[in-house]
């Protein structure tokens, strides 16, 4: 009889791996440099247009889909600006990853149609206003996203809490 530990089966090994919540968001600006943020009635802070990644889609497809669902705007997500990682916490039992994509600049008077029952309001906020309204984890993503826009280098950040 061997003293070496038994190897796990593939299914046991896969079951032992951490699960990750995944979402994608959109950084959208107007010609004045303000950013588009939205407010859900069930959350304390404002958020980016975006949401959780559905089975069968990639993060960029998610951002494109969420843009249309949450604003009525049809536009394909552009470059990946930032990836935010959040460790498990009391708020979420699994790690979370959030991808922030560049959706470019759109005119301020572009019609925006919010989905009833999901989002209550939208606004164009200066970056400084948005940093306050978004809360700590989303503000970190905004700072990283704006920096990535300016120099073309994707950022990876670790959020203090989920912002999910």
TrEMBL record:
The keyword Transferase does not apply. Its cofactor is Mg(2+). It holds the Pfam family NUDIX. Residues 18-148 form the Nudix hydrolase domain. InterPro entries: Nudix_hydrolase, NUDIX_hydrolase-like_dom_sf, NUDIX_hydrolase_CS, NUDIX_hydrolase_dom. It comes from the Bacteria. SUPFAM superfamilies: Nudix. Gene3D superfamilies: Nucleoside Triphosphate Pyrophosphohydrolase. GO terms for molecular function: hydrolase activity. The keyword Magnesium applies. Keywords: Hydrolase, Magnesium. Signal peptide: none annotated. CDD domains: NUDIX_Hydrolase. Coiled coil: none annotated. Belongs to the Nudix hydrolase family. This is ADP-ribose pyrophosphatase YjhB (NUDIX family). It comes from Kitasatospora atroaurantiaca.
